[in-house]
Every structure is written in C-alpha cells, then in structure tokens.
Amino acid sequence: MIAAGVVALEAIACIGIGAAILKALRIFYQLPTLDRFTWSFALGFGVLGWLVFFFGIFGGLQSLPLLSLLVAGALGSAMVGRIKNVPQISPEFQKLGPWEWAIVFGITAALIFDLFEGLSPPAEADTLAYHFTLPKQFIAAGKLVFVPRAIDGATPLLVQMSYIPALALGGERALTLWTMISGWAATALLFTLTRRFLDLRWSLALALIFLTTPAVLYGGGNGQVEIRNALFVMVAAFAVAQALKTGLLRYAVLAGLAAGFFMATKYLGLLFVAAAGLVILAQKKWFMHGAVFLLAALIAGGQWYIWNYTHTGDPVFPMLYGMLDYLNPDYWNTAYQQIFETLFRLDKAVPANSLWFFAYPFAATFGLYDVFESGRTGMGPFVLLALLFATFGLWRFRGHLIRSPLLPVAVLAGIFYGLWFFTASSQRVRHLLPVYPLVLLCVMVAAHRWATETGHLKPLAGAVLLTCLIQLAGQAVFGMSYGRYVLTGETREAFLLRTVRGYAPVPWINKNLGKNDLIYTQERQLIYLFDVPVYYGHWALDARIDTRPAADDPVKFFRQLTAQSISHLLVQGEMPAPGRYDRSKAKGYGLWRELAVRGCLETVKSIKGPSFGSRTLKTMVTNTTFHILKLKSPACLDNEKAPRL
C-alpha cells in the first residue's frame, strides 16, 4: 500500500507541476479537457526530473526533501484543478459499440500484462545495469555522484531522476509501478492527441497499437527511457505546430522545455532539439521564436552537459575526445577511444546513404539485420500495412496538406529521422521510439481519411486487427514470466534466479560481504541487485581499470583494482592452476586468471547457477560456476615462481 501511495502521490505531483506551468504560460485552458491532464503529466514529469537533479547537486536526496517536493507538487495539482465550466467528456464514451468494447478488452488485457511486470522485480539488463542502479547509488550517497563510464554513466539522466523519489520513498515496488505508470502516460497522451483527428473507435485502436508495440513492451515497464521521451516529443511537436499556427511565443517556450527534457535524458535529444528548432523557424517571427525555443531548451536540458563538462572537460563525454582537453586522463585514453569508435561502427548494419535512408524503415520492420533488434524492440507491422492507404490519402488531399495541423508534426519527425540516420552512431530501431507516436498518428489519420472517403475502411480495420492480434500474442509470451511470479506466489529470489542471467552468487554476496567491501564485476545485469558496494567495469566504456581484450599486464591490472579500492572480484568459469590453464584467456578481464595462479586472489566462495541467452525464451541455458575472489597483498606480484604470460 505504501508503494501504491507513493506512486499516486508522484503522479499527482507531476500533474500539479505541469498544470501550474501550463497555466503560467496561459496554455492550460486552451487545451481540451483530457489533454489538460496528459499534457500536465508529461510536462510535470520532465520538471520533476529537472528539480531532483538540483536536489542531488546540493545533497538533498533524502526522504524528507523528496517527500516535500512531491507534496508541494500535489498541492499545486489541487490549486489548478479547480476549473470552471469544464466541458463534458464526449458522449461517445457512454455509447460504446461492440467494436469499441473489443478494443477496450484488448487494452485491458495489455494493461493487465503490464501490471504483472509492474508488480514483479526488475529483470531487464539495461535497467539493472544503470537505469535503476544509478538512482539507487545516488540515494545511498544522498547526492549525485559522477560515474566516469561512457554511455551509461556520464550521460544525461533526467528521466532516471524521476525514479529517485519512488525508490527512496516506496522501495523497489514503487519504482517498478512508477515506470509502469509513466509508460502508460505516453499511450494516454497519444490517445488524447488522436481524438483531435479521429473518432473514439479509431483513437482507441491507435492507442492499442501503440501500447502493444514491441518496443513499448520492451521498455514501457522497466527503466528504459525511450517510451518516456515520447512524452516530451509529443508535447514539443504539437507545441511547435501551435507556435506556427498562432505566432504566440508561449508555445515556443513550451516546445523548448519539452525538447530540452529529451535532450536532458539522451544525447539523441540534441538531434530532436535541432529538428524542432528548424521547424519552428518556418514563420515570420522566426528569430524571436527560435531564440526563445533555444533558451528554454538549454534551461531544461543543459544541466547534464554542464555536469559532464565540469567533471571531464567534455559535455558529451567521450564524443569530443581529442578535440578538448580532458580534466582527468584516467577517465579516457586513445586506446579506449578506438574501441569506442569501433563499437559504434559495428552498430551500423547499412551505409548512411540516400538509398538506405528510404529502405531502412522496411528493412527494420522485417528485421533484416540483427543490429536493428527489430524482433523484440521493433515498431510492429502497422505502419507498413497502412502505408499504401496513407500514401493514397496524401495524394488525394494534397491540396489541403499545407493547411494541415499535422504537417509540422510530420516534418519534425522526418527531419529527426534524417538527422538520426545520417549522424547517429547506432541503427537500433528502438532509438526511434520517441518519434514513433508522431509517425503512427500521421499515418493513421492519412489512411483513415482516404479509407473513409473511398469506402475502404474494412481493409484498414483488417490491418489494425492483424497488428493488434500479432502484438498482443507477443505481449502474452513476454508477460508469462511476470504472470507466473504474480499469480503463483513465487519468491523474489526464485524469480530472479530464472530471469536474470548469473544471479546465483548475488544472495551469498549480499549476505556475506559488507559495506566496507567493494566487489568488481562485468556482469552488468547484476549491479542493481547487489546490496553491497559494487564497481561495474566495462572493457570498452571504463578506462579506469583496463580490461580491453588486448590488455596483458597483470601487474597494471592488479594495481588499478587496488587504486579503486576493489576488495573482491566476481568471475565465472574454471579456476586456473599453474602450468595447466589456457593463457590465451588470460587477457583483458581474463587477467584475473594470471593473478590467481600468482597467488594474488583467494577463492572465498564458488557457486553454481544457470546462465542463459534469453530470459523470455530461455535459450542457450548452461550451468556455470561463479567464483567470489578476494584480493590479497600486493606482495603476491613478486611471486617469481608463478608462470608468466
């Protein structure tokens, strides 16, 4: 009950904070009734993360300051909630037909599966590696702590800041429920925006399509940020459209704030700020709107770049390595930069040329390359199925396009896609999820207009039905594991043992190591689950402890471990013995094997447990031995009898 209360309080606080800002901008009362709540939540969600950053800077990540923040936001919700002359909700809701009820049933089923995940412990790897781990570590420290690890440490973290009040006040259950609620908010916002263009039936259908999209299923109920960035993108896109339509600066301010929140959550947000900025310039008041938009975006999103710069000398660490002077040479070096660039080249399956610019959406839909990750994090088939209808609609109503309120929205999405495709370092399709609601809305409206005009609604309805059936089936498979936990009374430890690869040694470590120990691991999916201090090392992202595949200096490795105050290592595989171990494996993180035969490591505990490739399908299941090793005195490095590499 405490967890549910904390989540409810945080949701109300977001609505209150967002509504107060919309009211200050004189936009609140210009919105339709339902939009007032969805827009307020989206904006307040971003402001909450923005505020918690400053609480963290000044050491205020304790229960009382965070509770005070939520209560203040909730009080704001009560003050702006007294609205006179509220128009009645559409009578369509009071007269649902069989098709509407069928869609509502599908949405309910999807929400139930989401609830199973919300009531279960977190199990997704990125979530356990840093989305939930960093908030947990910040709460333990009572303040923000800089983590000089590329991509998932020294990175914009605005959305993750919103996780801190939930975790600090309500524990893990509140945290997982909060991610569930904030994921639902994106669907709710898309629904209210769709109601401007489509009737209830088709608006509900679009909501169901989006809610069950594979990328949404993958990230909506855990710590992934793409689905939550969609909140900011939708508000920003429609605010830009209103700025162009009305010429009012207030909408440029709102667009800048929303775009800035995306920028403060992910580096790709910089591309979105650029795309939205280009669109907002397409008017007579281009200079003033552009300046106001940019200023608002910098205020909303610039703090994380300043944070990175003050600690490393690079606001987008480590992307400007070699162009800027780094403040701490231990954080990064040329060897790691070369690996970093190589990794990103491997994340591109197709060349960034004009041909693939148009072909990529089709290739990603069909999952032609593993790099795209279309199977579990794709966008589903609907856009492809409805594309022909939408194309006919664009041609038939081409004379009205210039006046369409969706034109700026579509152009913004197109510019972002172009910037992403030609400049981004990764071609994983889930990175496009923040703008996918815009694409989905534009395609559906164009297709529906043409189908209605020409009497071809049944084929379009068939595309909707086929998409929903496929995606609901996928969600059922994905949700079975969580349903088993919720419905059978399975213990948390048993759930984690079968869903988190390599979890077996974690309970022993939590029980037997203490706050004065520091265990080093490269098992990213375990980090959040440790209740003792942990150092997550990465062979390509953290230069402080060199575990590159080419690293072959065990003395340097040992000294780097001790320099970071590492007391234990978590490793897996067969323990080596002098004279009979594969020295080719004693490189990189495998240098622990060389330290072991030199007598620099003491085996504290060995535990067998399952390891697998997929937590959902349980592929490549093996039984692995994990070892907890304790570092010994540096004198072991002088062991001349030990074999050398």
Task: List the keywords.
25 helices, mainly alpha, 5 strands
Number of strands: 5
Distance between the termini: 58 Å
Order of helices and strands: HHHHHHHHHHHHHHHHHHHHHHHEEHEHEE
- State Rg: 26 Å
Query: Based on the structure, what is the oligomeric state of the protein chains?
Result: single chain
Number of helices: 25
Shape: globular
Largest sheet: 5 strands, mixed
Helix content estimate: 55-70%
Mean pLDDT: 92
The strand line-up of the biggest sheet is 2-1-3-5-4
Low-confidence stretches: 640-645
Quick structural overview:
The chain is mainly alpha-helical and 645 residues long. 58% of the residues lie in helices and 5% in strands.
Task: Give the helix/strand layout.
Elements: H1 2-24, H2 33-57, H3 63-80, H4 98-118, H5 125-131, H6 133-141, H7 158-194, H8 200-211, H9 214-219, H10 226-246, H11 249-263, H12 269-280, H13 286-301, H14 303-312, H15 334-346, H16 354-366, H17 374-377, H18 382-396, H19 407-423, H20 436-454, H21 457-488, H22 492-499, H23 506-512, E1 519-521, E2 534-536, H24 554-563, E3 568-572, H25 591-597, E4 601-611, E5 622-631
Parallel strand pairs: 1-2, 1-3
Antiparallel strand pairs: 3-5, 4-5
Helix pairs in contact: 1-2, 1-3, 1-7, 2-7, 3-7, 4-7, 4-8, 4-21, 6-7, 7-8, 7-10, 8-21, 10-11, 10-12, 10-19, 11-12, 11-13, 12-13, 12-19, 18-20, 18-21, 20-21, 24-25
